[in-house]
Amino acid sequence: MTNREQLAWAVVAAPAVIAVLVLVVPRRVATAFALVGAFVTAGLALALSVLAFRSLSDPVVGKWIVVDAAGGLLVAVVAIVGLATVLVSPAYLAGVDSSLGSAARRTHSYFSVLYAFWAVLFAVTLVGNLGGAWLLIEATTAVSALLVGFSGKARALEAGWKYLILTSLGLGVALLGIVVLAAGIPGGGIGALSWHALPTYSAGSQSALVAYVLLLAGLAAKIGWAPVHNWLPDAHSEAPPPVSALLSAALLPVVLLIAWRSEHALAPVIGARAGQNVLIFFGLVSLAVAIPFLWRSLPWKRLLAYSSLEHMGVIALGIGFGTPLALAGVAVHIAAHAVAKALGFYAATPLLEHAPRATERAVTGIARTYPALGGVMGLSLGALAGLPPSPLFLSEVLIVAGGFEAGRSWAAVAAALLLALGFLGLAHALLETTVGKARRRDPSSRRGRRTLVLLGGASLALLLGLSAAALWLPGSAFVDALLQGIS
Amino acid sequence: MNGALLWILAAIGLTVVVVRRRSVAVGLVTAQALILAGFALHDAGSVGDVVAAGALAVRAFALAALFLLLVSRTREQRPVHARVPPLVRAGGAVAFALALTWLVPVLGLDSRDSERAVLALVAFGIVTAATRRATLFHVLGIVLVENGLALAALGLPGGASLTIELGVALDLMLIALVAGVFHERIFAEFGAGDSTALRTLRD
Fold first, then answer.
1. Could you tell me the pTM of the whole model?
2. Confidence of residue A353 (pLDDT cuts 50, 70, 90)
3. Per the CB < 8 Å rule, is B107 touching A183?
């Protein structure tokens, strides 16, 4: 077993062990234990990412573990978002007055389920097998549904229930696709579903295409691609804000990685063009469905949720175009979306304290009544809108240029138009949210201001770094490694 | 698998779509899973196959115990009627199953009859979840879909992977357990396991 494989197992094992241990530590040290554990977990994961980036031409592709360029990127994203999520969780828990479980064990159960979710997210990113990936994605549904409904309130129960049922049914359809693939791959067993074995499918391109469509349609329900996205705005808006960040910034792109790997692995059987067409379809439909909601006056977290729908559509388009420019855009987009979206959700905890009715309606003029919070929300929304020099602006330019590079001009033009419309909607929301007409608010609610400012500063630095990376990335060895995939 | 058994499995699935009582539906999906486990055991050619059949049976009994416990702990004050009448549900389910059979070409299983039965069970599961108001029926719809997929795994030419079979059984039990937690809380919050109460989040 190589160093990277050992480290990959450790990255999954560390949060899984902490998920168990946090249940048995005394109550007074549970939060401190979770915070220390987050640094250990994130440290291991970032070390693995660095090793993955330093060995771009020599990815680990085993029966159980894959450590490649795309996996390295997603491990880093999951690590950073997971760490920040644990760091902001105490502020959320301090204001919680109800939960699914007992009040006495609230902190223990929250961190235990959160760590279990974090562990499974790492596992999905690193798993070397489509069958294993399906099992792990299904496991993310079970644990994250508990987090969505954590408050135990009526709206959270509704959101958690929809999420659980709709994504489980979707994953059932995906499993049907996997069964069809397993039927056509010589050898059988779990090894037949490894990423390396999928291109050996030999029962004909027609049935392989059917399997691929079933698989992607099922995964779409989990990624939140339209038209099977109905659970997404509810779950993301009703989950605890730190959990919403992990759902949007980490879970969605991690499942999308499995769709990406499936497309890459099956391209020799179904034809690269056919596989990409399905992704472009989901991408354009998601953009088209998201835009009208970005133009509406929505509560903060629901606005961010619809923005997730838009951004998952953009990433699908980039993978569908599949050119070096587009994939450079995809890499920047995944990372920048994670930073900006997580920041937006983290801001929801102080926002709900400052303006409690923000769960029900759009907030306006936050920068006038709470400048630090308004600044953080403005940074998040400005970046998500693609306001230059946001890295999301640059990544979208790269993806659209990649569409032209791929000879898919009509799709690139449609994407550019839809993105422009989305920008206008979010730019309007940005102005209203930050400097619009302010309502009377409680000026004393400033808890967690320091953490918020620190997170805002760190996010700004990361976003500027990603903007620079977007200029450097095209033509780099990293993009070559993304193009090559795990074949 | 012989044609008669496939018809029985499909008929049980269709009955779940129309049946009124939750406990009867639980019995039906359990019977369906046990038939599948029996068939898997009958066809077992290795220790792994026997273990997989055992996992299917354990899953069937564990889910039945969980669901019946939930039914007994959440007695409805009055029946939770489905949005759509039984005959319309049955008609819709059959039409959906036929459409799937027509749309999806060859799956690559050991017989075309098996493939039709798989698609029918998937269709019946989705229709059950989509048309019933009682929350427990949503979960039973998922179990119906998973029973269909277990049938598909049995029809794989090279046999199914033990790891995947065990994993799917474990995942399904995990999902059912979490759904059970939600079902009880929904019942406590709204006074009924009725999904019409879960329609407040709209844009």
1. 0.95
2. confident
3. yes
- The pLDDT tens digits for B101-122 are 998 877 888 888 999 999 999 9
Q: Is-contact A244 A81, C-beta < 8 A?
A: no
User: Does residue A60 belong to any structural domain of this protein?
Assistant: no
Distance from CA of B160 to the nearest CA of A (A): 6
> How open is the CA angle B66-B69-B70, to the nearest 5 degrees?
85
Chain B residue with CA closest to A187: the answer is B158
Of all residues in chain A, the one with the smallest CA distance to B110 is A183
A213 within domain boundaries: no
Would residue A174 count as lying in a domain?
no
Q: ipTM of this predicted complex?
A: 0.94
Cα diameter, chain A: 68
What is the pLDDT of chain A when averaged over all its residues? 93
- Determine the Cα–Cα distance for residues B113 and B169; give it in Å rounded to an integer: 24
Nearest CA in chain A to B194: A158
Q: Do A192 and B152 touch (CB under 8 A)?
A: no
In a domain, A115, yes or no: no
Taking the C-alpha atoms of residue A101 and residue A95, their distance in angstroms, rounded to an integer, is: 16
Instruction: Give the end-to-end CA distance of chain B in Å, rounded to a whole number.
Output: 48
d(CA A103, CA A101): 7
Residue A444 has pLDDT above 70, yes or no: no
CB contacts of A193 in chain B (<8 Å) are 161, 164
Chain B residues close to A135, C-beta within 8 Å: 164, 167-168, 170-171
Measure CB to CB from residue B186 to each of A142, A157, A210 and give the nearest one. Answer: A157
Asked whether residue B159 carries a pLDDT value surpassing 70, the answer given is: no
Q: What does the alpha-carbon distance between residue B87 and residue B91 come to, in Å, rounded to a whole number?
A: 6
Handedness of CA A234, A239, A244, A247 (dihedral sign): negative
Q: Residue A351's domain spans which residues?
A: 272-487
- Is the pLDDT at A343 greater than 90, yes or no? yes
